[in-house]
Write a structure and sequence with these properties.
It comes from Dryococelus australis. This is MADF domain-containing protein. The protein is mainly alpha-helical and 146 residues long. The longest helix is centred in the middle third of the chain and has 27 residues. 8% of the residues are buried. Helix content is 40%, strand content 0%. The chain has four helices and no strands. It has a domain of 99 residues. The N and C termini lie far apart (72 Å).
Amino acid sequence: MNREFLEDWIRIYESEPCLWEVKCKEYHDRVRKDAGYARLLAKLKEVDTNATKDAVIKKINNLRSAYRKEIKKVKASTKSGAAGDEIYKPKLWYFPLLSFLGDQDTPRASRTNVDSSDDGDDKSATEDGPHVVSPQMGLVKTNTFM
C-alpha cells in the first residue's frame, strides 16, 4: 500500500461522516454506513482483491488508534510544561490528513450510580471538624485535631 493510495483512502473516509462523526444523524443509519464501507472497500480492493468489510473496519481502527496515540503524546508533552519547541510533533505522515477526527474521540462525561440526594443528616467538614462522615456510610466522626 503506497502513500498515494492511503491518502486517497483517507479522503474517501473523510467524505463519509456517517462512519466517523458521532454527532452526524447518519452515524446511526446502518444502510448509509454500509454504503460508506462499500466505497472504502472498493478502493481497498484496488490493492487487495481479497479485502472484506472486516478488513476496512480493521484499517479504520488501526488508523484511528495511531492517530489517538499521537494526540496523547502531544497532550502529554504540553501538560509537562515543555517549552514551545519541546512540544511533541507527530511523526505520522498522515497525521494531518486525519485531523478531521480531532474532536470525535472526546470521552463522555462520567456518571455516577451513587445517590447524591441531600437528606440533611450529613454534616460538612467545616461545621464539625476534619473527619465528619455520613452516618449512612457506617462511619463516625473523629476529632483527632481537637
